[in-house]
Amino acid sequence: MGSHIRLFISFVRKISWKFPLFVSCPTMSTVPRKYTPVSDFSVWFRNLDLPLVIAEVIPERSEDRYRMLLQAIALARLVFYLRRPESAAHPFVVAIHLTANMIAERYIVMKTGPTTKEVYISQKDFDLSNENDAVAFQREMYNLASVLESMVGQLDTSKRDELQAIKKRAADLTSVHSSGAWMKHNGTQTPDFDFDDEESDEPDGDELGIFGDDTIRAGLARMNYQVAYVAYGVCSFSIN
Fold first, then answer.
1. Helix ranges, 82-207 (H)
2. Owning domain of residue 167
3. Which residues make Cβ contacts (< 8 Å) with residue 150, sequence separation at least 6?
4. Alpha-carbon distance 137 to 131, whole Å?
5. Domain total in the chain
6. H-only helix segments in the chain
7. Burial 202-215 (b: 16+ CB within 10 A, else e)
8. Residue 6 carries which DSSP code?
């Protein structure tokens, strides 16, 4: 990685995003709650205070993988919006999930176009206990550094204030971590969604990757999940 790109890209661990995401449920209150992600490791474009690579290392629960992908989807849509007006590039984000059995699941997440919310995700798994896979993963990470160098040049740093405005506008919203139930449209209550990192005895389903968890399957189905192909550890699919 060249010295000039190091001025703009930084590697950090356990740091909160500088702006929140918004969580809502169509069958409940129309008022969303705010949620500020924290990744185990991340690579940031400092000129925009924006993570471009997020990673979870040996999470305690399978839901962490699902949550990481939802974060990456929101982030991919955001970086597409942050393109320079004259840019025809398709910027993307990378999400990495390292399992307890040393499988590095690498996801490339990219919004497909300006007139759609569709997001394309390409998955590739690397067995880091295997020498060839470990070298291939390391090579891909080195290549990613040069790709990031090109990509950040396509982002409009003048939109930094818009990101900061998101945080200000969300100041009065209730956090997903706050106590109190969500209100349904009919006035009844439903328990809070679980966004914390409490330990769980549930199996993590790593041997089947993201598709091994029934909750993940159902959640992606509700989001118009479509499998394009699955072959040799590489999965591509779209979310509308």
1. 131-152, 160-169
2. 3-239
3. none
4. 10
5. 1
6. 3-6, 63-81, 131-152, 160-169, 214-222
7. eebbbeebbeebee
8. H
By C-alpha distance, which of 47, 28, 50 is closest to 39?
50
pLDDT digits (tens, 9 = 90+) for 97-114: 999 899 999 999 999 888
Greatest C-alpha distance within the chain: 58
**Range ranked top by mean pLDDT from 19-23, 131-135, 193-197:** 131-135
Nearest of 102, 57, 63 to residue 202 by alpha carbon: 63
The angle that helices 214-222 and 63-81 make with each other, rounded to 10 degrees, is 30
Indicate the pTM of the whole model.
0.70
C-alpha dihedral over 18, 22, 23, 29, to 10 degrees? 140
Distance, first Cα to last Cα, the chain: 35
**Pick from 43, 33, 9: which is nearest to 149 by CA?**
9
Q: At residue 160, what is the residue type? A: R
